[in-house]
């Protein structure tokens, strides 16, 4: 499944069904740029099992504030609209895969 961009207005609809890994990021963030290709690879490996969504915190401060995002990248995994886990900082592919599989 392709990686999607979501906004404050779309966020709740984006995370309401299934597993959704949300990447809170900003274009000026170095570690955010480092994790981008890892998320692309994860998307290819996991297919339709998980949706990967990106939230630009500069453009969507309401959602970032609602979830207490203090540093980026922050990855939050949602299952059917419920925030089930949070990972802060760039993480390796294997860790992201394992985290998602725990919640399948």
From TrEMBL:
Record CDD domains: TRX_family
Site (Deprotonates C-terminal active site Cys): 23
A single cellular component GO annotation: cytosol
The Thioredoxin domain, residue ranges: 1-104
Keywords: Disulfide bond, Electron transport, Redox-active center, Transport
Entry's Gene Ontology BP terms: cell redox homeostasis
Single GO MF descriptor: protein-disulfide reductase activity
Name the record gives this protein: Thioredoxin
InterPro entries in the cross-refs: Thioredoxin, Thioredoxin-like_sf, Thioredoxin_CS, Thioredoxin_domain
Residues annotated as site: Contributes to redox potential value: 30-31
UniProt keyword annotation of Transport present: yes
Residue pairs linked by disulfide bridges in the UniProt entry: 29-32
Record: active site: 29 (nucleophile), 32 (nucleophile)
Superkingdom, natural source: Bacteria
Organism: Paenibacillus contaminans
Pfam families: Thioredoxin (PF00085)
PANTHER family: GEO12009P1
Family: Belongs to the thioredoxin family.
